[in-house]
Amino acid sequence: MSLVREKTRAHQPSSSKPSTQPDPPPQNVTSSPASLSSSIQQPPKPTPQPRPPLRSTKSQLRTCFSTELQPENNTTIQQTPPKPAPRAINERRALANQGGEKSNGSKSASGAEIVDAKGLPKPGVRMQTDPDVHRRTPTTGRQMETFAVQGQAVRLDCDTDQEDTEDTFTYSWTKDNHTIKSSPRLQLQDSSLWILNTVLSDSGHYVCTSTNGSESTETSIFLSVEKGQCPRAPETKLALEGSNIILACTEDPTEILGKLLHMEWLKDCKPTGMEGSKISLHVSMSSMGNYTCMVIFGYDGQNYTVSSTIELEVVNRGPIETPKVIYPRNHTVHTKPGVKTKLECSVFIGSEKNDIEESQVYWMVDKNFTVQYPQLRENLTIETREDNQIYGTSTLFIAKVLPEFFEVPFECTILSPRGMDMGVVWLKHEKPYTIQATLTILLALIAVVVVNIVLFVFFRTDIILCYRQLCGKSRTGQTKVYNAYVCSCHGNTPGSTAEDLALRILPDVLEQKHDLKLFIHGRDDAENVADMAGVLSQSKAVLLILPGSRSVNQQEEESAIPLNPGQETLDVSHCSELYSVIAQSSVPVIVVEDGENADYSLLPESIQSIIQRDRVLRWSPAVQPNGRFWKHLRYHIT
């Protein structure tokens, strides 16, 4: 049991002074506990040593939070080799295995700081790293408070410096300013006062005075006796989830009054089956609770019980955010010797304010720091994004690419107490033909596209006809019966080329060779379909054969062209009625000129108005069956 002491020298008036010098508070963490009385004179705080720069050896960083870090006086930021983690970082690492003690600003034996779930120090709270050392919670001023259960025994210890001197100490105890004398229920053992079979009236203010002739020390304790089975916990021990800790009983077995009989542990006043002065725990969230050490001893023929309680609070460790190099991981940059370039490195630093100060981002060239190369300069920019995620961008400026920079690793490293990560960039010689090859490929692609466009324009009809033939598709559709309605009203001269074209040549080429179906006016009028409007609605297009002017010899030859047996001359009397039906229908009209200088005046204006230029074809007897005339004609009627 640790107690607060108050020393008084014989030749000096009584004055209060601290027994130990406090540890310097950590940076950016409030270290003065609010629970301490303002009447106690605090010693002057030592000036904290300046933290060495983490990223620069030639200049200090002006700012490190949400702004770009710039060197003072525009000097170059030169990176230094990684330094050992600060002392506070190592102490926070120790918490993972040893837990801590919440004591409102009091120090643990090691002076390590309590941290929260994210690894940050709690203001005014210290961590106990020695599991064998426990302290009681102060109440007011320098007064200590301890707890006991009615019917059990309790031991009050007087704090002395007897181990530091050979002088003999004498001890005297008072309760509420009344001197305590030894009795069967009150036993004085060296510097301890044992109260056996405590009662509620034993609660009060106890003062022990230890004197060695030259000075005296007073220990003030407030005892609170309560009903129940287990006493209250005067202290709280913090432990991280997943860590291994040791709980030690505050009652030293070697200082027990009489004979030690048994030691056992309770959790929340329920037996745990664990015995001994110390127990080991693998901490989980279910480990949280009050642990009571019960010591049974025999004295003067009777058995007594003395107990003490420790409250264990478990802190959720949470996910550990390790630093990470986002880009580059393993990247290659092509460049030329002697040119100016830069390399960029994007890193994730963490999500805590201290992560910036505790982290280093630096570049190395072939395992050498950049300070060895005057051509290199580093710059680090810090950015805080949503959810307080802190990212950094380290830019390595290369004033001149040296030959030795090629084929060696440029390593971007981030180092912090939570881990490290590294990315690599390689510089390679830029191939001289790279741009030329790229342009050649690009020009070749453009040429291929242009050639394809030209070919499609010139052979559009052939391509479409080939596609329709291969895929079995036709624009006629399932609802059309005829590919074309053929009419040659003005080619009424028997044996003329217009009549021959309508009644003989078109059927031979289109019907016999290409398996198309035609309705020819003058040939099919006597068949089942007599209604011209109905026939037109079942046809994809109308072929109007318009005669043109020819030479005398051609006209004489035309008169000698015989018709096939059974074919008749075209009935001109139906032309007027036919033109009217064609004009009223929506069937496309295709004009086939039989020779040059076709006379369009023979057609009524209603027909002339619906004729399109791209649907006018010129027939010549010299046209081959596979010529362009037939291809264009098939294109329009299929």
Automatic annotation (TrEMBL):
<dbReference type="InterPro" id="IPR035897">
    <property type="entry name" value="Toll_tir_struct_dom_sf"/>
</dbReference>
<dbReference type="GO" id="GO:0016787">
    <property type="term" value="F:hydrolase activity"/>
</dbReference>
<dbReference type="InterPro" id="IPR003598">
    <property type="entry name" value="Ig_sub2"/>
</dbReference>
<keyword id="KW-0812">Transmembrane</keyword>
<feature type="compositionally biased region" description="Pro residues">
    <location>
        <begin position="43"/>
        <end position="53"/>
    </location>
</feature>
<feature type="domain" description="Ig-like">
    <location>
        <begin position="323"/>
        <end position="414"/>
    </location>
</feature>
<dbReference type="InterPro" id="IPR013783">
    <property type="entry name" value="Ig-like_fold"/>
</dbReference>
<keyword id="KW-1015">Disulfide bond</keyword>
<dbReference type="InterPro" id="IPR036179">
    <property type="entry name" value="Ig-like_dom_sf"/>
</dbReference>
<keyword id="KW-0325">Glycoprotein</keyword>
<feature type="region of interest" description="Disordered">
    <location>
        <begin position="1"/>
        <end position="138"/>
    </location>
</feature>
<feature type="transmembrane region" description="Helical">
    <location>
        <begin position="437"/>
        <end position="459"/>
    </location>
</feature>
<dbReference type="InterPro" id="IPR015621">
    <property type="entry name" value="IL-1_rcpt_fam"/>
</dbReference>
<keyword id="KW-0520">NAD</keyword>
<dbReference type="InterPro" id="IPR007110">
    <property type="entry name" value="Ig-like_dom"/>
</dbReference>
<feature type="compositionally biased region" description="Low complexity">
    <location>
        <begin position="31"/>
        <end position="42"/>
    </location>
</feature>
<comment type="similarity">
    <text>Belongs to the interleukin-1 receptor family.</text>
</comment>
<keyword id="KW-0472">Membrane</keyword>
<feature type="domain" description="TIR">
    <location>
        <begin position="480"/>
        <end position="637"/>
    </location>
</feature>
<dbReference type="GO" id="GO:0007165">
    <property type="term" value="P:signal transduction"/>
</dbReference>
<feature type="compositionally biased region" description="Polar residues">
    <location>
        <begin position="56"/>
        <end position="80"/>
    </location>
</feature>
<feature type="domain" description="Ig-like">
    <location>
        <begin position="231"/>
        <end position="311"/>
    </location>
</feature>
<keyword id="KW-0378">Hydrolase</keyword>
<dbReference type="InterPro" id="IPR013098">
    <property type="entry name" value="Ig_I-set"/>
</dbReference>
<feature type="domain" description="Ig-like">
    <location>
        <begin position="131"/>
        <end position="224"/>
    </location>
</feature>
<keyword id="KW-0393">Immunoglobulin domain</keyword>
<dbReference type="InterPro" id="IPR000157">
    <property type="entry name" value="TIR_dom"/>
</dbReference>
<keyword id="KW-1133">Transmembrane helix</keyword>
<feature type="compositionally biased region" description="Polar residues">
    <location>
        <begin position="11"/>
        <end position="20"/>
    </location>
</feature>
<dbReference type="InterPro" id="IPR003599">
    <property type="entry name" value="Ig_sub"/>
</dbReference>
<protein>
    <submittedName>
        <fullName>Interleukin-1 receptor type 1-like</fullName>
    </submittedName>
</protein>
<dbReference type="Pfam" id="PF07679">
    <property type="entry name" value="I-set"/>
</dbReference>
<feature type="compositionally biased region" description="Polar residues">
    <location>
        <begin position="100"/>
        <end position="109"/>
    </location>
</feature>
